[in-house]
Prior knowledge:
CATH architecture: Alpha-Beta Barrel
CATH superfamily: NADP-dependent oxidoreductase domain
Bound molecules: NADP nicotinamide-adenine-dinucleotide phosphate
Number of strands: 13
Helix content: 25-40%
Largest sheet: 8 strands, parallel, barrel
Strand order of the largest sheet: 3-4-5-9-10-11-12-13
Order of helices and strands: EEEHEHEEEEHEHEHEHEHHHEHH
Low-confidence stretches: none
CATH topology: TIM Barrel
Mean pLDDT: 97
Structural class: alpha/beta
Shape: globular
Amino acid sequence: MQYMKIGKSGIQASVITLGAMGIGGGTWWRNSDDQESIRTIHQALELGVNTIDTAPVYGFGHSEEVVGKAVKGNRSKYIISTKCGLWWDDEEGSFRFEKDGHKVTRNLTAHAIRTEIERSLKRLGTDYIDIYYTHNPVCPPVMTPAQETVGTLMELKKEGKIRAIGSSNMTPDEIRQYTSLGEIDIIQGHYSMLDRNAAKEIIPLCREKGLPFHAYMPLERGLLTGKITKDYVVPAGDARDDSPLWKPGVFSRAVDFVDSLQDICQAYNCSCAHLAVAYLRAKGEDINVIAGARRVYQIEDIVHAVDVKLTESDVAEIENRIQKYNL
Ligand SMILES: NC(=O)c1ccc[n+]([C@@H]2O[C@H](COP(=O)([O-])OP(=O)(O)OC[C@H]3O[C@@H](n4cnc5c(N)ncnc54)[C@H](OP(=O)(O)O)[C@@H]3O)[C@@H](O)[C@H]2O)c1
């Protein structure tokens, strides 16, 4: 495994992070098994993957609880990233979605952040969080000033409750605003072969500011692993249901695109899942890839992606094929 610095925090994170959204289960991620999830987190550490990304909203506390059980007794060996800002206590904030009986708002007030962190610490069974992210920026109608949000995160850093501050799903202007108000250490956003928007403005801006980028959904929820066939039906309410790539028409082209990568996989003696991660790593040493894993075989498989070093011409060839399939 390789490791990278997270901002000025002193954290050395594995370049592959274990994404624990699926570990939360619920209707987003059916068929999760807590004991298997715990074994996956243990095996990750054995393989050098010391970093785990979770959030309160993943299974409405369940992902953090399972992560907490898994790291018990070995807490200091793991780098735990969790988040604040998606709130379901009451109607405070701006309503965003309803899931598994919870009405979720975006809420980044000082009160919400301070309430959420105490709950996350309890569920995770720890007294500090390594990387604490704002999950999403605020949106109308309740626009908490960024000064209040970033100010609260800076206080938590001074108090030793968090080691690094991260921001997720931000626009370039929001990143500029947050970084002008406090010491942000890392930015998180969607980035995969089939969603390259982050490469346009966000990653260049991160580089200008010396911040690493935490890339989520690198496997497009399994689509880029090659295991998904055209007859796959997305269960209603599943996390995949939210993605345009899994909608009729686009989905069929996406499966054909993945099938078309077989010759490149053969040349590197790797799987499609490895290629999907290696593609992002080829975009820069400052890209940390959050690969979702909830089964031991998944983490055992995905770590091999760090050994796949794509040439510039093969990266260009993959991008030609993305265009060819109109994706
Ligand atoms: N900040 C945000 O707003 C945000 C949003 C989304 C995600 N995230 C973070 O990013 C992480 C990654 O995203 P994601 O989990 O949604 O999607 P992903 O990493 O693109 O895909 C993960 C899924 O792919 C399948 N998979 C993984 N490794 C595999 C392998 N080696 N072979 C075959 N299948 C494999 C598994 O699905 P099955 O188990 O169903 O087979 C797994 O749950 C999340 O867990 C979360 O930590 C953050």
